[in-house]
Amino acid sequence: MKTKLTALAVTTALVAPAAIAEEMTIVSWGGAYSKSQKNAYHDPYSEKTGVTIINDDSSAEAVAKLRAMNEAGNVTWDVVDVVAADAIRLCDEGLAMEIDPDTMLAAAPDGTSAADDFGDLLVSECFIPQIVYSTTFGYRTDLVGDTAPTDICAVFDTDAYPGKRSLEKRPINNMEWALLCDGVAKGDVYDVLGTPEGQDQALAKLDTIKDDVIWWSAGADTPQLLADGEVIMGSTYNGRLFSVIEEQKQPVAMLWDAQVFDLDGWIIPAGLSEERQKRALDYIMFATDTQRLADQAKWISYGPARASSAPLVGKHAELGIEMAPHMPTDPENAKNTFLYNYEFWADYRDDIDAKFQAWLAK
Amino acid sequence: MTDASKPDGPMLAADGTPLKKSLARALRLQKMRALALIAPLLIFVLVSFIIPIGSMLFRSVENSMVSETIPLTVAELQNWDAQSGELPNETVYAAFVSDMVVAIEAKRHTRLGSRLNYEQTGMSSLFRKSGRQIRRLDPATDGPFKEQLIDIDKKWGEIGTWATIKTHSVDITNGYFLNAIDMQRTPDGAMSQPEDKRILIKLFQRTLIMSMIITVSCIVLGYPVAWILANLPMRQANVLMILVLLPFWTSLLVRTSAWKVMLQQQGVINEVLVWVGLVADDARLVMINNQFGTVVAMTHILLPFMILPMYSVMQTIQPTYLRAAKSMGATNWTAFWRVYFPLSVPGIGAGSILVFILSIGYYITPEIVGGTKGVFISNRIAYHISSSLNWGLAAALGTILLAVVLVLYWAYDKIVGIDNVKLG
């Protein structure tokens, strides 16, 4: 019996690498976003290579889980979709492998190198950007009165726009908006926010609307609150608002002013076996080329991260509407924008978050 | 005289060995067999429960990362006094460069930066940015380093930076526990956090108070239900029992979200109240995203844990006791209060312990319906585990929570007596 078991264990061990080669686990956010990736990347890749792709909707806890897997010495994920800030932390913690854009990523069709094609969006050595999304406001067209808001500061103007608003239950973005509407010049926002006085100033501004705010922690909250009429305006990811407006036909419109750009993309966990790493890199090479990134925009209103993909963005695959005007990067929408300041928040998030939470609990 | 009648010799078994010894051997075999039977459970509990909890407790004091990443610097810093008002000397800087070159090679310097950033804002980028420059230095030939490092980043020329490193270089630290009670470990010893960052003690208090409110509401609502269940004929009681258990078949998230639909301002209850005319349309009640919402939703979710132990205890109370009391002239109330209620107390005790302990560790429901005033300490623990990655602080908070539960359990044992708790 014992020998049989040992024999079995040995065979499993021998067979296992072959099994890994046939399938890979890709971690993402679930919902409409994972669907867009499945249509644009996973299905074509499986067709081309015969690799089975297993989806795991764990991106929200990816950093913590990867750290735990790494400590346990058993990383079961092959490719992980994370926001840029998380990618930077994973890179800092040594949990993601470094990527060389020139050898590991596909060049644009016209020969531009991947490094130039992604440009400034390569914010970390470990990060392969996929989309540009934005955190922005949507408002109920039927509940804001006769003059629709066009300015971010409408959020802080409870006289002109009485009613509840929803904001994310974290300092990032909210502090910037508060300072902007408290008269701080856009270029000075982070200098001011780096000082204790600036942090107090932002919290004081937020304090003026504190009683009118419902705080959200999941991206789906604001669309639901808007649809229910619980709030008259609220912040969330632009793709969520797109589906409320265009797919569910709710009386909601976008307030693109002072939208905050952020990036989402892939990392490959550190410590994969050579074979799995090779496959993960092969997938990344395929899934982040110019055409594939443009394909994803057929399914969801997030802008492709490559400059060369933008002209290829076409119509929504099911609704048949032109996608370009719904992209956060469209010139009409991007008149006044912020880019998530990764460096600043990597330093200040622990400190400001403690203050923000203490303020919330007051 | 035979051996057996000898008064001072040991009693012998049939085979001549002393009886005591042979009995012990027989018992030992039995004990081993019993142990073998419970071994799977014992190993399971040990592996999946005791060891993880033990390692969690240890994380709250463990802090070897600093001295492992920059060992030479930590050793050199022992000779430097932060109070002296002077920067460390060249040997510290040289040791630091040697340490960093090794750490950068192993990509460990940024981890150290994240660790120290919990204590002092800016450490994360300091280590990340300096790493790119220090990588090019050769510790053997490129010295002296003091000026070079200060050129790379002026924070290396600040006493505070080095004081932070020195303060947090001990292998076993009380820093996380101090943070967990709104204090901090500083070069001058333990100090209070600035007022605008104090939140954790408040959350501990809130967690305890709200858990008590939830427990009491469960008792108030659950007692009559358990009483009816225990006193109905079996057939009807079983049907009602299904209603009590029904929520277990529904996902926790669904039940919590359902409360959102019920309680929000455009929700079912407010709509009905406005329709009836009890509440004006512009003065709808705020019943969610606050403490009220948390108490309602959690009472609903935890109610079965109160009803079940109460029910099983009440089932064992003989109806004849009540009749006897009444036949001796007690009113309905006296019979209930003096006879029935004391007999049902073990059920209340068991239910209360279950509900209270479950509710102080809850975080999904408060997160969804609690808004800002209805969240618990467990929401902060979840934040530090999954978002800020400050696992040491999360472990310290968890350890304190565990200690609070044990203290309350001990107090309960002293006041009510743990023998008085019955699950059936």
Overall description:
The complex is a heterodimer of chains A (362) and B (424). Chain A is an alpha/beta fold. Chain A is 42% helix and 17% strand. In chain A, strands 1, 2, 3, 4, 5, 6, 7, 8, 9 and 10 form a ten-stranded mixed beta sheet that branches. In chain A, helix 2 links the parallel strand 1 and strand 2. In chain A, helix 2 packs antiparallel against helix 13 and helix 7 crosses helix 9. Chain A is globular, with a radius of gyration of 22 Å. Chain A starts with a helix and ends with a helix. In chain B, a hairpin with a 2-residue loop joins strand 1 and strand 2. Helix content of chain B is 66%, strand content 2%. With 424 residues, chain B is mostly helical. Chain B starts with 18 loop residues before the first helix and ends in a 9-residue tail after the last helix. The N terminus of chain B is likely disordered. Chain B has three domains: 48 residues; 109 residues, no CATH class; 221 residues, MetI-like fold (Orthogonal Bundle). Chain B is flat. Chain B has a two-stranded antiparallel ribbon.
Q: How is the biggest beta sheet of chain B arranged?
A: 2 strands, antiparallel
Query: Could you tell me the mean pLDDT of chain A?
Result: 91
**Biggest beta sheet attributes of chain A:** 10 strands, mixed
Order of helices and strands of chain B: HHHHHHHHHEEHHHHHHHHHH
- Whole-angstrom Rg of chain A: 22 Å
- Average pLDDT figure of chain B: 91
Q: Report how far the terminal alpha carbons of chain B are from each other.
A: 59 Å
Main structural class of chain B: mainly alpha
Query: DSSP helix count of chain A?
Result: 14
How much helicity do the residues of chain A have? 40-55%
> Total number of helical segments of chain B?
19
Please name the two chains that share the biggest interface, counting residues whose Cβ lies under 8 Å from a Cβ on the partner chain: A-B, 34 and 39 residues
What name goes with the CATH superfamily of the largest domain in chain A?
Answer: Periplasmic binding protein-like II
Query: Approximately how much helix is present in the residues of chain B?
Result: 55-70%
Enumerate the spans of chain A where pLDDT stays under 50 for 5 or more consecutive residues.
1-20
- Placed side by side, the strands forming the largest sheet of chain B appear as 1-2
Total strand count of chain B, please?
Answer: 2
Roughly what fraction of the amino acids of chain B lie in strands?
A: under 5%
Number of domains of chain A: 2
Quaternary arrangement of the chains shown? heterodimer
**Backbone structural class of chain A:** alpha/beta
Protein name (chain A): Putative spermidine/putrescine transport system substrate-binding protein
Signal peptide (chain A): 1-21
Keywords (chain A): Signal
Subcellular location (chain B): Cell membrane
